[in-house]
Amino acid sequence: MTTIELISLVVASIALLLSVIATTVAVQLRRSIAARIAQRAAALERTAPDRRPLAAVVVNPTKVSDTSPVRAALERACRDLEWREPLWLETTAEDPGTSQARRALAAGADVVVAFGGDGTVRRVASVLAGTGTPLGLVPAGTGNLLARNLDVVTSRAAEIAPDDVEAAMRVVLSGIDRRIDVGWISVERPGATQPEPEECFLVMAGMGFDAEIMANAPEALKAKVGPAAYFVSGLQRFNGDRVRMDIVVDGVPHRRRVRTAVVGNVGRVQGGLALMPDAEVDDGYLDVLAVGPRGFVGWLDVAGRVITRRTWGDQRLAHWRGQRIDLLAEQPQEAQIDGDPIGEAVAMRVRVDEEALVVRVSNRAPRRPIIARARFTRKLRS
């Protein structure tokens, strides 16, 4: 081999070696860059805000004996519909829902779910009213009257099933928003010099026989037999005395001797019975029913009128509608707000806040015909 050939071989070998080294370095460099890019992307993903919507659940744990399976059902519904894991906020006897709702708003919840009975619902609603943040309903109480009147999923047995919870939660996450009226009520106690601060109500509030039923229905019996517990309580107080009461509707006084007077934002009670058939949850008015029968025959007449929806009546059963309603009793009476007994009162002063609350309902729920409000307006003018 000549010197030139040897030099050419050495140069070629060096060139090949340099090419291999360059290729290896380039591959390692690309891998390193790719790894750094992946690390930075992962870091950004970890620190970037989660843009998925958030549901906060205000739950009354006394309504559910074992929260683990129902909580798992709620989380599954959120995961399937691409929502974040829900914020879980439990109520207590001392703090039954208002501060939990405020925490939900502070956390930026897109919907605040009341998981409990009508009492839990109204406390959450008292915070959400006027904010525009929707209220979701996962019914777990005895009556669940707001959910029933809005045709939200609500099957209540002795114990709510996870399947029912998940179905209700899917309505909350995928339904539509509906604005409803909110009632505000100020109670005057016997011997007090000032009325109490206003409280929110969404269903019904009243004084007399209905409140006695609520106050004396044992919790243990309600847990076992549901709304039938109120029937048992009512039979025990069937023959009570009537009391004189002034009912002032938009400034117009009406004096009656009554067993009970009820102000309603909705019309249906347990069993789908239309206690106030003209009541609508979004018409800007409240309905008031004064019930004053005497004896068994009088109660039969009242029952017949309610069943046949003839509640525009006489001394036994009278019905008015208005935006401001005062109930002024001659003697202290048991009182209730949305089914929660609140003790004795001598007066309840009530007003309506039209369409102040947004509620998430099923997009298949029936809606009130638009002509209903026009029909009621004609009735008022007549």
Automatic annotation (TrEMBL):
Homology family: Belongs to the diacylglycerol/lipid kinase family.
Top-level division of the source organism's lineage: Bacteria
Protein name: Diacylglycerol kinase family enzyme
Organism for this UniProt entry: Quadrisphaera granulorum
GO molecular function: ATP binding; kinase activity
Residue stretches making up the DAGKc domain: 50-189
Keyword Ribonucleoprotein: no
Pfam family, one: DAGK_cat
Keyword tags: ATP-binding, Kinase, Lipid biosynthesis, Lipid metabolism, Nucleotide-binding, Phospholipid biosynthesis, Phospholipid metabolism, Transferase
Entries under InterPro entries matching the protein: ATP-NAD_kinase_N, Diacylglycerol_kinase_cat_dom, Lipid_Phosphate_FormReg, NAD/diacylglycerol_kinase_sf, YegS/DAGK_C
Source taxonomy: Bacteria, Bacillati, Actinomycetota, Actinomycetes, Kineosporiales
GO biological process: phospholipid biosynthetic process
Cofactor: Mg(2+)
